[in-house]
Amino acid sequence: MATAANKSNPVLDWIKNHMPEKPPKEEKVSRKEKRERFKKRLATLTPAEQKYLRRKQIIDAVWPIVRGLLVFGLCFVIIYPLLYMITTAFRPRSEMNDPTIIWISHHLTTSNIKDAIKTMDFWNTLGNTLFINIGCSILQVITCALTGYGFGRFNFKGKSIFFFVVILMILMPSQIILIPQYMFFRYFNPLWVYHAITGNYINLINSPLTMYLPALTANGIRAGLFIFLFRQAFRGLPKELEDAAYLDGCSPLKTFVSIMVPNAGSTFLTVFLLSVVWYWNDYYVSTSFFTNNSTIALQLKNLDASLTRIIFNNGNIKINARELIVWMEAGCLISITPILIMYIFLQKYFTEGIARSGLTGM
After folding, report:
1. Which of 113, 159, 202, 222 is the most exposed place for a label (fewest CB within 10 A)?
2. Distance, CA of 310 to CA of 254 (rounded, Å)
3. What is the DSSP letter of 256?
4. How far apart are CA 13 and CA 174, in angstroms?
């Protein structure tokens, strides 16, 4: 009588019989044998084929070296300023004139960071910057997403003309419309009747509304690029998703909120990150609408003048430009730190959104 261990399992037997056989391991071949095989192969080819094969062999051997040099050069160009900023920010000003010190300081110090934080009034400025930055970025994501959804999923009269205007927003520098924008905010006339009733205008200069209103109308910093990103993302979604939502009784707005937004989440995050970075680094537009140093970018732009007034209590003192670098680099370091921390945690979703939007294929 057969035991349970000797009984065959039909399922296991079928798997064993139908499993593909493992390929045999390749035998190790010495370099000498490889060269001999290559020579024998060359002997069977025509002269033109031999010439092509030799050229391909040389390219395959040289290209990894060239590629490595290119990557190393790009990394050096990109990382060198960051390394210089970090090493200089913690270096005493007296060592800036020491030719024996190139990278590592003999005596590291945090006084430059403390001076930069004090001069820039960093924590109050950071709060004000985040209030403007995050609010404008959220508004810009919403308005640009709705605009991109309209361009990507609907057909209407004048669509090509309006999209051409969006392309102009990408190509046109902000300096062209800056003066009309300044006049609009300096002499703000709501509904064009406020001046007729009161005889006055509303001055919005030095008000966050100068940043919020353009973002609310999909006309903020780099809004044209964000509309294009959303258009590409929504065009890539299957039409069947939208049709199924319409069959279930969803309106276009409900379809956008319930179907499109969840499927384009990475693009929303990408646009939000780009918007935060550009609002964070902007000082040209901010300089036009703010006369006080209320943002990180403006504080950093005027850091050299503020140092002589706050740290040295003398606005007319002349500081050696080489020694001034330590405070400038310290200011740059504390200014980019919040953005770097944010990017480190969100870089996966950022790259995914760029890939899905199709921007890399432009």
Report:
1. 159
2. 55
3. I
4. 73
Lookup: tokens for 333? 């370091």
CATH code given to domain 111-361: 1.10.3720.10
Q: State mean pLDDT over 322-351.
A: 83
The confidence band for 2, taking pLDDT boundaries of 50, 70 and 90, is very low
Residue with token string 């919020």: 212
Please tell me the distance from the alpha carbon of residue 107 to that of residue 95, in angstroms, as a whole number: 9
334 — phi, psi (to 5°)?
-70, -20
Q: With contact defined as beta carbons under 8 Å apart, do 230 and 149 qualify?
A: yes
Question: For residues 116 and 336, what is the distance between their CA atoms, to the nearest angstrom?
Answer: 13
- pLDDT value, residue 140: 93
SS3 state of residue 29 = coil
Residues 245-258 pLDDT 10s: 888 888 888 888 88
- The dihedral sign for the CA sequence 291, 296, 298, 300: positive
How many C-alpha atoms does 31 have within 13 Å on its Cβ side? 0
Q: What percent of the chain is modeled with pLDDT above 70?
A: 85
Given this model, what pLDDT does residue 15 score?
56
Q: 239, 164 in Cβ contact below 8 A?
A: no
